[in-house]
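Hi P.,

Sorry for the delay on this. The queue was packed all week, but I finally got your sequence through. Input first:
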Amino acid sequence: MTEPSSEISLSRSLPETVLPPVPPEWEQTLEKARSKEALAALARSHPRYLAAWAALGQATSDDVEAYAYFRVGYHRGLDSLRQAGWKGSGYVRFSAPSNRGFLRCLDGLSQLAGRIGEKDEAERCAQFLRQLDPSLQPGALPAG
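Then the structure:
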């Protein structure tokens, strides 16, 4: 077992968290999924796979259903971020492929909250997205 580092980081920038990569077979299954049923089966089989929740939210035309999928992905994403060492602040950048599912869920949640009349939640989510990755514009994330 290795000893913990006693070095103190004097970095003036915010910390950055990158979620662990998912197994390639999950990504391959997502790429091949052509229906909402196939996406639901993927989320059911791998409920921590955030990109599956984002894809489900994007695949439905019902705003309440989409909101629910994005919310599940968002909350599972917060759990995953905490497990990856995120302490509630710092960057979670879209440039890291493993972060994209969470960021898409957060963006989708912002968009759908606005559509169902939850304006405060929509703005909080949009602000959170900008804080996590200042290069992103809410509502304009590249498709998965």
